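new request in #modeling-help
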Amino acid sequence: MAHSARTDCPELPDFFLLKRLARDQLIYLLEQLPGKKDLFIEADLMSPLDRIANVSTLKQHEVDKLYKVEYKPIVSTSDQLCFLIRPRIQTVKWIYVANADKATGRFRRYKIIFTPQKFYACDAVLEEQGIIGDVTTDEWSFYLLPLDDDIISLELPEFFRDNFLAGDQRWVRTAGSALHLLHSLYGPFSKVYGIGRCSKMAYESWREQVEEGEQKARQAEIGKVFLIDRDVDFVTPLCSQVVYEGLVDDIFKIKCACVEFGPDVTSSDKSIKVMLNSQDRVFNEIRNEHFSNVFGFLSQKARNLQTSYDKRRGMDIKQMKTFVSEELKGLKQEHRLLSLHIGACESIMKKKTKQDFQELLKTEHSLLEGFEIRESISFIEEHINRQVSMIESLRLLCLLSITENGKSSFFLCSYGVDHLLTFANLRQLGLLVEQQPGETLTVMESKVGKLVNDRTGGKLSDAFSSLAKKSNFRALSRKLNLVPKSDEEYDLRVPRDMAYIFSGAYVPLSCKLIEQVLERDGWTGLEEVTRLLNGHEFAVTGYGADSKAKNDAQRIILVMFLGGCTFSEISALRFLGREKPSMLFLLTIWLMETPRVSVTLISSIF
Amino acid sequence: PTTMLCTKFGEDRPLGGRVCLTSCCLQMMKNKADEEDYWNSSKFKAFTFDDEDDEFSRLKESKRAVNSIRPLVDEDDDEEEVEKVSWSGEPVGSISWSVNETAASNQRTDREPAFPKINTDTTSISKSHSGYSLSALFKGETHRCILGKDNTLSGDWSPEETVQRMQQGKAVSLEKFRSLQDKLLLLDYAVSAHDGNVITAPLWDLFVFPEVLFRELTDRQTALRHFIHYLTESKDQRLLLELLRYLPLSTPGLPLLQYKEHLGIADENKRRDFLKSCLSLPFSPEDSVHVEDHYTLLERQIIIEATDGHAERGGKQEIFQKFPRKASILNMPLITTLYYCCFYHYTESEGTYSSPLNIRQTFKLSEKQFFVTALAARAKLKAWPDVDALFTSRNWLGFTRKKSPLSFQRVVDVLHKNSAPTQVLQDYVALVDDAELRITLAQKHKCHDIVINTYRDLKDRQQLLGYRAKMARGSAEERKINELLNNSQIRWKN
């Protein structure tokens, strides 16, 4: 069950360097404001900051007190104030302290450090407030935060919304710079593949930055890069996650590779924060497993643990000493980890059984398969009518619309007409696909449509008529074999393809694309697929890098999801990396604060 | 279709309130009965290793210090690693400085690894988009310069170079881009560079002639979206509305943007009036129906709220005393309103605004929508006769039978979630067609009679025997099973 690591794995690049660089630069910036100072930090920068520096580091560089940036008067008595923020207009507006001080005749020095970069719009706000000379600004190029051996994050929650919804390209350069940073540290890359508008722009931005700067020849540690826009595949993030890490994220929300387990998990009265990464040996073995496999694994572990403890029976004092000093600590730790994850499993089970999870999964799988659509529509309809979880309803509706082009106004009845705006946003994103009424109706279907064509039944007939219209997902699914043949048993313990992450029902489109392109070394033969995905694909070779070099680095592939990815996708890519020794070992990047795309992307648009 | 789920997220075997993990891994543990016992004994039993064992507890105690297990959150991890790096204590200049240091061993080469440019669907830039040569409009001249990192300001750069320098955060002066044409050219280069940050910068300069700016922006969708986003972010409602006024009505999403305004209106009467004014906006046919519904609903909620608030304060109506309203009904979704009316105004005639039937009519709710909501509301009140009546239909012979637009499985679920007692639940469990499903539901809700009868009908002696073991000694259920098992008339299949 626990997949043994392949012995011929190329070594992963050491991402610690990224942390060190960010930390060094931050210290440099802090020292630009010599003397004691108070530091104000934007709320969502705190966890990332924690990962690269700690309070004592800051204290060493004369940071006195730490505050959160908030919209309220500043109580600090320090003569120097330093602000560490994202380049958000709102936050810049909050920093009106300079004007407040002027009014009271107080003199202080102010410095704003923007990360990862400053925008001209921020300057405009400062200018508007008349404090541009009073406040000095700087940039902290903290682009990438390593979260695990194989995950780096840009930690930019607004990337998705800004880019795909508002159509604002302000983060394109940021993505390009992040790539540039990786290129100069771990490159040169030999090949870059990509699909999506934003990916193309990010590639261009990176390429320009490479040309602007100097290049050093070095031994490449990362061979190839794959850029993919989140909107190329919305289906995958809309599916319920059933691999362990994904479920933990769904229920407890993993943030910066850290999760807070509440009292129901810890079986005590307090919550604890736990780092979830490869350092946690128990977690590392189950994170990519289908949930049904996790129990078996945990139970085996528990038995082993008991056996190890039992060894102490019949030991003499000396043996006991050795046992305590050599083994007990490890056992204890394992005991703690094990009981935590068992607690988490129990909690997950409790929550999932409460919400008809089984039926929900069945509906999702039917939609993916294009089977029993009417039953699925009726399930979703009832789900909505009963005003059960809005986010779930919306998720199902989006999934229905993408896979089948359906839609529903029931939603507005149950959750409020205000959601017209939500729908407009979802449509803008391409998460909700609605077809024009009357389009491609056959005679038969329009008859059925008329029969039920009052306003409530109209939705049903829409769904009906869409059955005839071939949605792109269905075609893509057929072309790429996304839904495995259903008449074969799928043994989740011995996954045969990436579909295991969705109980064997569906291979994630995004990961399948990545696999196909890497196998073919380009998009040749995938013309029909890219047409269905609205194009914007590319595959380019850097002619400097000697791609003939058969070094291990060429097997290390950086996958950058512009707009975020899910833990399920990460698990799928890890699976691919294990299965395809000839070429793959994956390194995943995401650009969202949390990869819980389905929930985040839906809830971020109200 | 088969989706091959090995997981079973059912509630088959709750054990003393705790979800039983075993049920989920039955597949893999089929042959390990002892393992099952092991797991059923709840998680912590499995790990509290014999507390009575003196030796062990002493050991535990004496070695507590040794075992102060490193916290799971490896906070100090970084610290350790930092020490490994030769940290000189000197401030580090920049990323590139550090990069140089770490990559010191590598030699320079010519700038070889050149990746090709790819076509990022840019609209080509023509030098004269605009028909305006409006030097007259340049009254509000701004002298903007954007200072970059090096704080220097010199040189005479083309629009293209200017955009490039801006991208790199270098100093530029926008002062020389004086004519509208120049400004627009700069904007177009910024757009083609795909850098949102740089796109917004020239836009402020164009602010001086909003009318022209807005008109020009309609042909420049990318810049327009950046501008709208900028205005939304800086909460400049006034300018945003002004901008919207200049946009052609056909601009997609425009009516919705105006409709969105209602969210900011707290007073319900003002909000209603605003919604009324929205009715004339050029929505899509479908959206306009929804907006109309929104208006009608709020209007009605205002009336209901006033009447019910009055009744509640008056203390005359029992229902409001017994079940005080938790929140105002204002701005609630339609279904919630229907639920509220089914709860407080169920029996009202169709003529009143608060009558559930009236609401159903006015908003053309589907049978299912109405049914589910009424069911939940009446069940919450434990008005079982009302619940029963919802299902009753007469056929042409006058016999009553229970009919439901919802599957009975779902009905049971709704009732259960509204804490219906077993006696009520079993009536509906019995109506579930599928025998297997019926047994599962009956077991879950402890409707023993149904389980027993179903096994009897299936002639399944083994299952019945098994079920008897779960019944209390001397209970009516046990007696019933015994009678059945002794009944020689039944031809058991096993």
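bot summary: Residues 471 and 477 of chain B are 7 Å apart (CA to CA).
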